[in-house]
Amino acid sequence: MEAVLPAAAAGALIGLAVRALMPARRDLTSALDRLDVAKTTGPLLATSAPVATGSLQERVGSRLLIEFGGRITLPAQDLNLLRISPAEHLGKKVLFALYGLLLPQLLQALLALAGTPLPFALPALVSLTLAGLFWFWPGKDVARDAAAARLVVRHAAASYLERVALARIANSGAAQALTQTAEVGDGWIFARMRQVFHQADLAGVTVWDALKQLGDELDIPELTRPADTLALAGEGAAVYTTLQAQARQLRIALLSDAKAQANEASAAMVLPVTAGVILMLVFVMIPVTITILGS
Q1: What does R_g of the chain's alpha carbons equal in angstroms?
Q2: Domain spans of the chain?
Q3: Are 177 and 168 contacting, i.e. CB atoms less than 8 angstroms apart?
Q4: Which of 8, 37, 110, 156 has the highest count of CB atoms within 10 angstroms of its CB?
Protein backbone atom coordinates (compact mmCIF):
# COMPACT_ATOMS: atom_id res chain seq x y z
CA MET A 1 0.00 0.00 0.00
CA GLU A 2 2.83 2.38 0.83
CA ALA A 3 4.37 1.90 -2.61
CA VAL A 4 1.23 3.31 -4.24
CA LEU A 5 1.99 6.84 -2.94
CA PRO A 6 5.33 7.40 -4.67
CA ALA A 7 4.07 5.61 -7.76
CA ALA A 8 1.02 7.87 -7.94
CA ALA A 9 3.13 10.97 -7.32
CA ALA A 10 5.64 9.93 -9.96
CA GLY A 11 2.82 9.24 -12.41
CA ALA A 12 1.32 12.67 -11.77
CA LEU A 13 4.68 14.41 -12.30
CA ILE A 14 5.37 12.38 -15.45
CA GLY A 15 1.92 13.31 -16.74
CA LEU A 16 2.60 16.98 -16.09
CA ALA A 17 5.97 16.74 -17.84
CA VAL A 18 4.43 15.01 -20.89
CA ARG A 19 1.61 17.54 -20.99
CA ALA A 20 4.15 20.34 -20.78
CA LEU A 21 5.80 19.08 -23.97
CA MET A 22 2.49 19.26 -25.84
CA PRO A 23 1.69 22.60 -27.51
CA ALA A 24 -0.56 24.75 -25.36
CA ARG A 25 -3.80 26.16 -26.75
CA ARG A 26 -3.72 29.93 -26.65
CA ASP A 27 -6.67 31.82 -25.21
CA LEU A 28 -7.00 35.07 -27.17
CA THR A 29 -9.31 36.73 -24.64
CA SER A 30 -7.02 36.14 -21.66
CA ALA A 31 -4.00 37.27 -23.69
CA LEU A 32 -5.71 40.56 -24.58
CA ASP A 33 -6.73 41.03 -20.94
CA ARG A 34 -3.14 40.59 -19.83
CA LEU A 35 -2.00 43.15 -22.38
CA ASP A 36 -4.58 45.66 -21.14
CA VAL A 37 -3.49 45.15 -17.54
CA ALA A 38 0.16 45.60 -18.51
CA LYS A 39 -0.66 48.87 -20.24
CA THR A 40 -2.58 50.33 -17.31
CA THR A 41 -0.61 49.04 -14.33
CA GLY A 42 2.78 48.15 -15.79
CA PRO A 43 6.11 49.55 -14.62
CA LEU A 44 7.74 52.63 -16.03
CA LEU A 45 10.17 50.52 -18.03
CA ALA A 46 9.78 47.09 -19.54
CA THR A 47 11.47 44.48 -17.41
CA SER A 48 14.24 42.74 -19.33
CA ALA A 49 13.40 39.05 -19.11
CA PRO A 50 16.08 36.35 -19.31
CA VAL A 51 16.67 34.91 -22.77
CA ALA A 52 14.63 31.75 -23.36
CA THR A 53 16.79 28.65 -23.72
CA GLY A 54 14.13 26.24 -24.98
CA SER A 55 15.36 23.52 -22.61
CA LEU A 56 13.20 20.75 -21.20
CA GLN A 57 13.13 22.48 -17.82
CA GLU A 58 11.84 25.70 -19.34
CA ARG A 59 9.20 23.95 -21.44
CA VAL A 60 7.91 22.00 -18.45
CA GLY A 61 7.88 25.12 -16.29
CA SER A 62 6.17 27.23 -18.96
CA ARG A 63 3.32 24.78 -19.29
CA LEU A 64 2.91 24.54 -15.52
CA LEU A 65 2.86 28.33 -15.23
CA ILE A 66 0.15 28.48 -17.89
CA GLU A 67 -1.94 25.89 -16.07
CA PHE A 68 -1.26 26.80 -12.43
CA GLY A 69 0.54 30.16 -12.56
CA GLY A 70 -1.75 31.88 -10.08
CA ARG A 71 -1.26 29.18 -7.45
CA ILE A 72 2.53 28.84 -7.64
CA THR A 73 4.76 31.13 -5.60
CA LEU A 74 8.27 31.75 -6.92
CA PRO A 75 11.10 34.04 -5.72
CA ALA A 76 10.62 36.47 -8.59
CA GLN A 77 13.11 39.07 -7.32
CA ASP A 78 15.86 36.52 -6.75
CA LEU A 79 15.27 34.97 -10.18
CA ASN A 80 15.31 38.39 -11.83
CA LEU A 81 18.56 39.21 -10.06
CA LEU A 82 20.19 35.97 -11.25
CA ARG A 83 18.71 36.23 -14.77
CA ILE A 84 16.85 32.93 -14.40
CA SER A 85 13.40 32.63 -15.93
CA PRO A 86 10.56 31.52 -13.60
CA ALA A 87 9.67 28.76 -16.07
CA GLU A 88 13.18 27.31 -15.99
CA HIS A 89 13.28 27.43 -12.19
CA LEU A 90 9.88 25.76 -11.81
CA GLY A 91 10.71 23.10 -14.39
CA LYS A 92 13.96 22.33 -12.58
CA LYS A 93 12.10 21.89 -9.28
CA VAL A 94 9.56 19.52 -10.86
CA LEU A 95 12.16 17.43 -12.69
CA PHE A 96 14.33 17.22 -9.57
CA ALA A 97 11.33 16.04 -7.53
CA LEU A 98 10.53 13.47 -10.21
CA TYR A 99 14.13 12.22 -10.10
CA GLY A 100 13.92 11.89 -6.32
CA LEU A 101 10.72 9.86 -6.64
CA LEU A 102 11.99 7.48 -9.30
CA LEU A 103 15.54 6.83 -8.05
CA PRO A 104 14.61 4.63 -5.03
CA GLN A 105 12.01 2.81 -7.12
CA LEU A 106 14.65 2.04 -9.75
CA LEU A 107 16.94 0.72 -7.02
CA GLN A 108 14.10 -1.40 -5.67
CA ALA A 109 13.49 -2.82 -9.15
CA LEU A 110 17.17 -3.73 -9.54
CA LEU A 111 17.19 -5.40 -6.12
CA ALA A 112 14.01 -7.28 -7.02
CA LEU A 113 15.64 -8.60 -10.17
CA ALA A 114 18.59 -9.71 -8.04
CA GLY A 115 16.20 -11.55 -5.72
CA THR A 116 16.76 -9.37 -2.63
CA PRO A 117 14.05 -6.69 -2.67
CA LEU A 118 13.68 -4.26 0.20
CA PRO A 119 10.43 -3.96 2.19
CA PHE A 120 7.92 -1.85 0.26
CA ALA A 121 7.62 0.75 3.01
CA LEU A 122 11.32 1.67 2.88
CA PRO A 123 11.53 2.67 -0.83
CA ALA A 124 8.22 4.51 -0.53
CA LEU A 125 9.44 6.56 2.43
CA VAL A 126 12.80 7.25 0.77
CA SER A 127 11.08 8.28 -2.49
CA LEU A 128 8.82 10.81 -0.79
CA THR A 129 11.71 12.15 1.30
CA LEU A 130 14.01 12.58 -1.68
CA ALA A 131 11.22 14.17 -3.71
CA GLY A 132 10.67 16.77 -0.99
CA LEU A 133 14.38 17.46 -0.62
CA PHE A 134 14.97 17.74 -4.37
CA TRP A 135 11.93 20.02 -4.72
CA PHE A 136 13.41 22.56 -2.29
CA TRP A 137 17.00 22.13 -3.50
CA PRO A 138 16.83 24.60 -6.45
CA GLY A 139 15.15 27.19 -4.22
CA LYS A 140 17.97 26.95 -1.69
CA ASP A 141 20.54 27.40 -4.47
CA VAL A 142 18.73 30.45 -5.82
CA ALA A 143 18.48 32.04 -2.37
CA ARG A 144 22.19 31.44 -1.70
CA ASP A 145 23.31 32.80 -5.08
CA ALA A 146 20.97 35.80 -4.78
CA ALA A 147 22.37 36.65 -1.34
CA ALA A 148 25.91 36.51 -2.73
CA ALA A 149 24.90 38.67 -5.69
CA ARG A 150 23.28 41.27 -3.41
CA LEU A 151 26.46 41.43 -1.36
CA VAL A 152 28.39 42.23 -4.54
CA VAL A 153 25.84 44.92 -5.37
CA ARG A 154 26.16 46.48 -1.90
CA HIS A 155 29.91 46.84 -2.33
CA ALA A 156 29.42 48.29 -5.81
CA ALA A 157 26.70 50.65 -4.54
CA ALA A 158 29.02 52.09 -1.89
CA SER A 159 31.61 52.97 -4.53
CA TYR A 160 28.87 54.20 -6.86
CA LEU A 161 27.47 56.57 -4.23
CA GLU A 162 30.86 58.10 -3.56
CA ARG A 163 31.54 58.65 -7.26
CA VAL A 164 28.09 60.17 -7.83
CA ALA A 165 28.65 62.50 -4.89
CA LEU A 166 31.98 63.62 -6.37
CA ALA A 167 30.35 64.16 -9.74
CA ARG A 168 27.64 66.27 -8.14
CA ILE A 169 30.12 68.47 -6.28
CA ALA A 170 31.93 68.93 -9.60
CA ASN A 171 28.75 70.65 -10.89
CA SER A 172 27.49 67.70 -12.92
CA GLY A 173 23.73 67.39 -13.26
CA ALA A 174 21.86 64.67 -11.40
CA ALA A 175 21.12 62.63 -14.51
CA GLN A 176 24.62 63.15 -15.86
CA ALA A 177 26.19 62.09 -12.56
CA LEU A 178 24.20 58.85 -12.53
CA THR A 179 24.81 57.87 -16.14
CA GLN A 180 28.46 58.85 -16.42
CA THR A 181 29.35 57.13 -13.14
CA ALA A 182 27.65 53.94 -14.32
CA GLU A 183 29.78 54.04 -17.47
CA VAL A 184 32.94 53.71 -15.35
CA GLY A 185 31.97 50.45 -13.62
CA ASP A 186 32.71 47.09 -15.23
CA GLY A 187 30.65 44.76 -13.00
CA TRP A 188 27.41 43.08 -14.03
CA ILE A 189 25.33 45.45 -11.91
CA PHE A 190 26.77 48.43 -13.77
CA ALA A 191 25.89 46.73 -17.04
CA ARG A 192 22.31 46.35 -15.80
CA MET A 193 22.28 50.03 -14.77
CA ARG A 194 23.55 51.15 -18.17
CA GLN A 195 20.86 49.07 -19.84
CA VAL A 196 18.16 50.56 -17.61
CA PHE A 197 19.42 54.11 -18.18
CA HIS A 198 19.37 53.53 -21.94
CA GLN A 199 15.78 52.27 -21.77
CA ALA A 200 14.86 55.27 -19.63
CA ASP A 201 16.32 57.62 -22.23
CA LEU A 202 14.27 55.97 -24.97
CA ALA A 203 11.09 55.91 -22.87
CA GLY A 204 11.41 59.49 -21.63
CA VAL A 205 11.73 58.42 -17.98
CA THR A 206 14.09 60.12 -15.53
CA VAL A 207 17.19 58.12 -14.70
CA TRP A 208 16.54 58.22 -10.94
CA ASP A 209 13.07 56.75 -11.47
CA ALA A 210 14.67 54.03 -13.61
CA LEU A 211 17.27 53.35 -10.91
CA LYS A 212 14.54 53.14 -8.27
CA GLN A 213 12.58 50.68 -10.39
CA LEU A 214 15.72 48.55 -10.80
CA GLY A 215 16.26 48.54 -7.03
CA ASP A 216 12.65 47.50 -6.43
CA GLU A 217 12.77 44.75 -9.05
CA LEU A 218 15.96 43.26 -7.64
CA ASP A 219 15.07 43.94 -3.97
CA ILE A 220 18.20 46.04 -3.48
CA PRO A 221 17.41 49.06 -1.27
CA GLU A 222 21.00 50.30 -1.67
CA LEU A 223 19.98 51.37 -5.17
CA THR A 224 16.54 52.67 -4.23
CA ARG A 225 17.68 55.11 -1.54
CA PRO A 226 20.18 57.01 -3.72
CA ALA A 227 17.53 57.19 -6.43
CA ASP A 228 15.25 59.05 -4.01
CA THR A 229 18.12 61.34 -3.05
CA LEU A 230 18.98 62.09 -6.68
CA ALA A 231 15.31 62.87 -7.33
CA LEU A 232 15.74 65.76 -4.90
CA ALA A 233 18.91 66.72 -6.72
CA GLY A 234 16.90 66.91 -9.92
CA GLU A 235 14.79 69.56 -8.24
CA GLY A 236 17.87 71.62 -7.38
CA ALA A 237 18.61 70.42 -3.84
CA ALA A 238 22.20 70.03 -2.67
CA VAL A 239 22.67 66.33 -1.94
CA TYR A 240 26.43 65.89 -1.73
CA THR A 241 26.39 65.53 2.06
CA THR A 242 23.47 63.10 1.93
CA LEU A 243 25.15 60.87 -0.66
CA GLN A 244 28.40 60.85 1.30
CA ALA A 245 26.53 59.94 4.49
CA GLN A 246 24.72 57.10 2.71
CA ALA A 247 28.01 55.77 1.34
CA ARG A 248 29.62 55.97 4.79
CA GLN A 249 26.72 54.17 6.45
CA LEU A 250 26.82 51.46 3.78
CA ARG A 251 30.55 50.96 4.29
CA ILE A 252 30.02 50.64 8.05
CA ALA A 253 27.20 48.13 7.53
CA LEU A 254 29.37 46.06 5.18
CA LEU A 255 32.22 46.08 7.68
CA SER A 256 29.87 45.00 10.48
CA ASP A 257 28.52 42.15 8.32
CA ALA A 258 32.06 41.02 7.49
CA LYS A 259 32.99 41.02 11.19
CA ALA A 260 29.84 39.05 12.05
CA GLN A 261 30.62 36.45 9.38
CA ALA A 262 34.21 36.17 10.64
CA ASN A 263 32.96 35.66 14.20
CA GLU A 264 30.53 32.98 13.03
CA ALA A 265 33.30 31.20 11.15
CA SER A 266 35.55 31.36 14.22
CA ALA A 267 32.77 30.02 16.46
CA ALA A 268 32.10 27.20 14.02
CA MET A 269 35.76 26.15 14.23
CA VAL A 270 35.81 25.93 18.04
CA LEU A 271 34.16 22.51 18.25
CA PRO A 272 36.31 20.77 15.56
CA VAL A 273 39.53 22.22 17.00
CA THR A 274 38.56 21.25 20.56
CA ALA A 275 37.63 17.73 19.46
CA GLY A 276 40.96 17.40 17.64
CA VAL A 277 42.94 18.52 20.69
CA ILE A 278 41.05 16.12 22.99
CA LEU A 279 41.57 13.25 20.53
CA MET A 280 45.30 14.01 20.34
CA LEU A 281 45.56 14.08 24.15
CA VAL A 282 43.78 10.75 24.38
CA PHE A 283 46.22 9.11 21.94
CA VAL A 284 49.15 10.61 23.87
CA MET A 285 47.87 9.57 27.29
CA ILE A 286 46.78 6.02 26.42
CA PRO A 287 50.34 4.55 26.22
CA VAL A 288 51.41 6.41 29.39
CA THR A 289 48.33 5.16 31.25
CA ILE A 290 48.87 1.57 30.10
CA THR A 291 52.51 1.74 31.21
CA ILE A 292 51.61 3.12 34.63
CA LEU A 293 48.88 0.53 35.18
CA GLY A 294 51.14 -2.29 33.99
CA SER A 295 53.89 -1.38 36.40
Answers
A1: 28
A2: 4-143, 149-249
A3: yes
A4: 156
